[in-house]
Amino acid sequence: MIIKVITSNPGKVKEYKEALSSFGIDIEHLRIPYDEIQTSELTEVVRNGMDQIKAKGVTDFIIDDSGIFIDALNGFPGVFSAYVQKTIGNRGILVLMNNEDNRKANFQCCIGCNLKGKDIIVLGRCDGSVLENEKGNEGFGYDPIFSHDGKRSLAEIPMKEKNMISHRGNAVKLLMNEIKKII
Ligand code: IMP
Known about the structure:
By secondary structure, the chain is of the alpha/beta class. The protein has helices at about 10-20, 40-55, 80-85, 90-95, 160-165, 165-180; strands at about 1-5, 25-30, 60-70, 105-115, 120-130, 145.
């Protein structure tokens, strides 16, 4: 089976290729632009994005909207994670977190999948903390400042290991449970 992965993020493409291959699914990477509506829910962004893509006649695809939610910042940047990464970046987040003892954060990944005429939306989560400094060269985005085990950043672990514990890896597991019901 082949599923189209629609994203402009090469890091996500690599992770989906690795995560889905273990379920015998191949991916085709497509870049199809769609608008992300302003709302506080990742699932709403995904639901609306899926409608826009289906309106273009595309079927059997995955889209993904993700974000990091930092407790001490009341969940910021959350759904604004892409804009914040582009503007203040990881260094800006570390400045906001300077002298903050509560470093708890979680990453969330919402996958919207259209397959065989059905829409599936799942939300995967990874709890962890914001590190004091950027560490590691793997991964992308917030990986260098987020740790799931309080020691290593997600940019310090191999992608295969990241997929085993990450928000995206957990979302893929939930997705596969749903896909199994319709194939
Ligand atoms: P979006 O899902 O493409 O809107 O991503 C939101 C922001 O979070 C972007 O800046 C991404 O680079 C970042 N991001 C998404 N997934 C991950 C991840 O798995 N690790 C680190 N950063 C991520």
